[in-house]
Design goal:
The protein is mostly helical. It is built from twelve helices and no strands. The protein has one domain.
Length: 222
């Protein structure tokens, strides 16, 4: 992945982070709405010009004769073989390319894209399941004494949704870990360039990990 491509990914993540955290530490549920990693050749070829998958995908999206099923297949194969990431899909939408709603719904239903991506694009409210890579309600309470105390004294309800909303609007900005599988300290230590480019924004770091952990083989904790 080139530096230019990575900067685009980070810009997309930063915009998403700003949209979420503008809500502040409140109990409201955020609902976001937003408008490649290139792989090397798989075999020897006499052709010297190679086009990144994302470039070819853009051409398909602009072609009026490309049907929804064709777009679905291209995105599915790109995700499957890690030539397109979920951040790439976000980038396409922000650049004004239109991906049919039924394509995104199908990719989400079949598990090809995360709930985080689908809910962000469709404007639907997040649930704890959409943050499963970085949040587990039981861990959030047990690993953070301040949260456990708030639940104990009744100032914070102990149900999953209340804990999730607290994590999203208060826990993340404070750098509280919400899952044994993801640590902000670990992410910042092992991916310092990414963290720096994201401005050490905790929400941006969590979002980057959720969207790119598979395509970039990221580790969230030891």
């Amino acid at each position: 992945m080139s530096r230019k491509e990575n900067r685009k990914k980070i810009k997309v993540i930063a915009l998403m982070s700003a949209a979420v955290m503008s809500l502040g530490c409140a109990a409201g549920m955020p609902a976001l709405s937003l408008g490649v990693q290139a792989a090397g050749p798989a075999y020897e070829s006499k052709w010297t010009v190679q086009y990144p998958f994302l470039t070819l995908l853009k051409s398909s999206l602009l072609n009026p004769y490309t049907d929804s099923n064709g777009i679905y297949e291209q995105l599915k194969q790109g995700i499957k073989y890690q030539t397109v990431s979920e951040t790439d899909i976000m980038q396409l939408l922000q650049e004004g390319y239109r991906i049919p709603a039924d394509v995104l719904q199908r990719l989400y239903a079949e598990g090809w894209i995360s709930g985080y991506l689908y809910k962000t694009v469709s404007g639907q409210p997040f649930t704890a399941a959409d943050f499963k890579d970085v949040f587990d309600a039981a861990y959030y309470v047990s690993a953070n004494p301040v949260i456990a105390a708030a639940v104990q004294n009744g100032t914070l309800p102990g149900d999953e949704m209340s804990l999730f909303l607290n994590y999203l609007t208060c826990g993340i900005p404070a750098g509280l870990n919400g899952s044994s599988s993801f640590s902000f300290a670990y992410f910042e230590e092992h991916y310092p360039q990414i963290a720096k480019a994201l401005g050490n924004d905790k929400m941006a770091e969590a979002a980057y990990y959720i969207l790119n952990r598979n395509s970039q083989h990221l580790k969230g904790n030891a």
